[in-house]
Specification:
Blueprint (H helix, E strand, L loop, with lengths): L9 E5 L7 H11 L3 E5 L2 H6 L2 H8 L11 H15 L3 E6 L5 H4 L9 H24 L3 E11 L13 H23 L2 E7 L5 H4 L4 H10 L8 H12 L10 E4 L10 H8 L1
Parallel strand pairs: 1-2, 1-3, 3-4, 4-5, 5-6
Nicotinamide-adenine-dinucleotide binds next to helix 1, strand 4 and helix 8.
Length: 270
């Protein structure tokens, strides 16, 4: 049962690939909370994924866009405003991909063309989304724009490789653009730093199962699930959080503030 938190709000949700995607759960939650939105993903992901199933469930239109293409993004924002019948109140950037991680390149042997691709897809694309929203004047006053990130931007998790740099870029863009958009239109920009979550992007990181187990034991509340993340995103899109801006918001069951936990001591004492 929803709370009508997003009644009358319009938005764009990037990155729903399949039912495990954080963006997928978010779309279901936003729909339940009364929002209308368009769904988008890279053209190749649209062919491989199941987004049409989600579109049917949430009564939304799918508009293809490669998030690294400002041309695609311009089309996406303009079509979304037209389709939804007005300017937007929220945008979710839920995008991540590293060719180096995907192809098993070690951190000491990075392919630099791929490194730049990682930065473009997973970091700079957030700037492109924000700049397009600004240039096309697509946002309503007091709108909320979010991107998803991971704590590897602050601490080293070796197998996260060049994605760590991309997430640092992403979080920095949220601060810089959060200032700019607030001054221009009272629009807030934040990142949510989510627990490891079993999804296509997550499972691409080597040793991911161990990672998930470690984080779970290291978090007093346990790992935050994709559904928990969707709930948090809905609140961040609502009018209940209008003054939260330029923040990297930890959504991790307490992981980032824990030094050691009993669960981990028990495990290591075995
Ligand atoms: N799964 C985790 O453990 C975890 C933890 C913290 C943060 N995150 C972040 O959450 C976000 C969503 O990932 P997820 O875990 O739901 O996995 P996912 O694989 O379901 O989603 C990633 C999405 O990025 C899309 N994408 C890739 N290249 C694109 C491009 N050029 N243009 C547009 N879209 C593109 C993919 O098609 C996919 O839908 C990512 O930013 C990820 O880094 C994930």
């Amino acid at each position: 049962m929803g709370y009508n938190l997003l009644k009358g709000k319009r938005g764009i949700i990037f990155g729903a690939l399949d039912e495990n995607s954080i963006a997928w759960k978010t779309a279901l939650k936003c729909h339940e909370e009364g929002a209308t939105f368009t769904l988008t993903n890279a053209p190749i992901a649209l062919r491989m994924g199941k987004i049409n199933e989600l579109a049917e469930k949430t009564n939304s239109k799918v508009i293809p866009a490669d998030a690294t293409s400002t041309e695609d993004l311009t089309k996406l924002f303009n079509e979304s405003v037209e389709e939804l019948g007005g300017k937007l109140d929220f945008v979710l950037h839920s995008i991540g991909m590293s060719p180096n991680v995907r192809k098993g390149k070690s951190y000491g042997d990075l392919n630099y063309d791929w490194f730049l691709k990682t930065l473009d897809i997973s970091g700079v694309s957030f700037h492109k989304v924000l700049q397009t929203a600004e240039k096309n004047d697509s946002m309503n006053e007091w709108g909320s724009i979010l991107a998803l990130t991971y704590i590897a931007a602050q601490r080293t998790f070796p197998d996260y490789s060049d994605m760590a740099q991309a997430k640092s870029v992403l979080e920095s863009i949220a601060r810089s653009y959060g200032y700019r958009f607030a001054k221009l239109k009272n629009v807030r920009v934040n990142t949510i730093s989510q627990s490891p979550t079993v999804t296509t992007a997550g499972a691409g990181v080597p040793g991911f199962d161990v990672f998930v187990d470690y984080a779970n034991k290291m978090s007093p509340l346990g790992n935050a699930s994709a559904d928990d993340c969707a709930n948090y995103i809905a609140v961040m899109f609502s009018d209940m959080t209008r003054m939260v801006n330029m923040q990297n918001l930890m959504h991790d069951g307490g992981f980032s503030a824990s030094g050691i936990t009993e669960a981990l001591v028990e495990e290591l004492s075995k």
